[in-house]
Design goal:
Chain lengths: 136, 294
């Protein structure tokens, strides 16, 4: 299996969340999902808020919620830069649910004082986190 | 009378010893916090470096990109300063130096624009509140800098810039060199001056596929670049603050030690003088008795 793996790094301003050899990664690109395998051509992609998932060295599929950013692929080194990234297993499901409900409520109220764009962003983030935690 | 002097000196020595205990404890706390701040700065480096490299490459590629954050304005009416200081004092000249760098930079601007301060840290707010005017304040952020705080500040300044409330934004913070040296630094962050393309290494000089397009990526990248600069300044500032506090408290403890030495010496002298006086009295008295006896 070793010859089908490549390096993935998930980097946020606060930490290097993940760095290891993986087999396959799918990221939420702006126009849809985008998968990367070993020996992919050099690529820079803009990412949406959403979940990315990768198949690690042992074949297990892991999910990470990211709040947008971009990905750089370069000679079998893939680097995902996101302002925040959370592993599915680390996500506080109750908190994510609460923030999804709050955002949905705000959007449904059509109150002019509420920043619609912000509420939508927050809804997207909460949904992504719930998906990553397998609790949607 | 001499006895009272000894008592008074003893009291002062005890009081200074207490102060010394506090200052040396603060020094140790600052040293621990400095280490943590440096670790955080180290951890943020991969993000910042990658962002910088990609941005340099993209700007080189798409010269004709027109993004409001990149456009220099012909007329600069208002200039904003993000001034990063500490919330608390007892850190030597740390805050004073940053504030002076800010006022110097404002004074040196020949265009004489209106100025506004975005205060990060209580010391910055307190100083500028009654002088230049504080447009936004971010205080009590604590010893651990969160990226979310930097992002909030970024959103505020980008908003103000895009609404043309300000035409240029500078960032003032203390760059951490070592425990003894923190250099106040003023950098322009808006409009964005893209990093030098010289920072692109040969290895990265290849044809990339851009998904969906170089322009789109550039647009999502620019605000993040501003955010990473602000975050970086806050991390450096925190390390500098703790370094400055360590030095200041180290000096204070040393001074306290000196004062204690001097006072102890003085106390011993006074006590000895008192004893000598007493002996002289006794000897004098004994001699007088002897003379009387003859």
């Amino acid at each position: 299996m070793a010859d089908s793996t490549f390096m993935l790094e998930i980097v946020t301003p606060e930490e290097l969340l993940f760095k290891d050899e993986i087999q396959f990664v799918v990221v939420p690109e702006v126009n849809g999902e985008l998968g990367v395998l070993r020996n992919h051509a050099p690529l820079i992609a803009a990412l949406n808020v959403g979940i990315m998932r990768y198949t690690d060295n042992n074949g297990a599929i892991k999910k990470v919620a990211i709040s947008g950013g971009f990905m750089e692929v370069m000679s079998n080194e893939t680097r995902v830069l996101a302002e925040t990234a959370e592993r599915g297993s680390q996500i506080d499901v109750l908190r994510a649910k609460a923030s999804r409900d709050r955002a949905e409520k705000r959007l449904s109220e059509h109150d002019a004082s509420i920043n619609q764009v912000r509420a939508q962003m927050s809804l997207a983030r909460a949904t992504a986190r719930l998906k990553a935690a397998d609790a949607s | 009378m001499a006895g009272a002097g000894v008592k008074e000196l003893k009291r002062r020595i005890r009081s200074i010893k207490n102060t010394q205990q506090i200052t040396s404890a603060m020094k140790m706390v600052a040293a621990a916090k400095l280490r943590r701040a440096q670790e955080a700065a180290e951890k943020s480096r991969p993000y910042t470096e990658t962002l910088k490299g990609t941005l340099a490459r993209l700007v080189g590629l798409s010269n004709d990109v027109e993004h409001p954050l990149l456009v220099k304005r012909d007329e600069v009416r208002k200039v904003g300063y993000i001034v990063v200081t500490s919330d608390r004092g007892l850190c030597g000249g740390y805050n004073t130096n940053i504030i002076r760098a800010t006022t110097d930079s404002i004074g040196a601007d020949d265009r004489k624009p209106e100025n506004g301060i975005i205060a990060v840290g209580r010391k910055s707010r307190d100083f500028f509140r009654k002088r230049i005017g504080v447009e936004a304040e971010y205080i009590n952020l604590g010893d651990k800098i969160n990226y979310s705080d930097a992002r909030e500040i970024t959103q505020y300044v980008i908003n103000a810039y895009e609404n043309e409330e300000v035409d240029e934004i500078y960032l003032v913070y203390a760059k951490f060199i070592n425990v003894l040296r923190q250099v106040p630094t003023v950098v322009k962050i808006l409009p964005i001056e893209p990093p030098d393309q010289g920072s692109i290494t040969e290895e990265h000089n290849v044809e990339y596929i851009y998904e969906p397009s170089a322009e789109t990526i550039l647009l999502t990248l620019l605000p993040r670049y501003v955010g990473s600069q602000i975050y970086h300044a806050m991390l450096e500032g925190k390390a500098s603050e703790q370094g400055a506090r360590m030095t200041a408290m180290g000096n204070a403890s040393q001074n306290a030690g000196e004062i204690i030495g001097n006072l102890t010496l003085k106390m011993n002298k006074v006590r000895q003088a008192a004893i000598t006086d007493e002996i002289l009295d006794i000897v004098g008295g004994a001699e007088a008795l002897n003379k009387g006896g003859k």
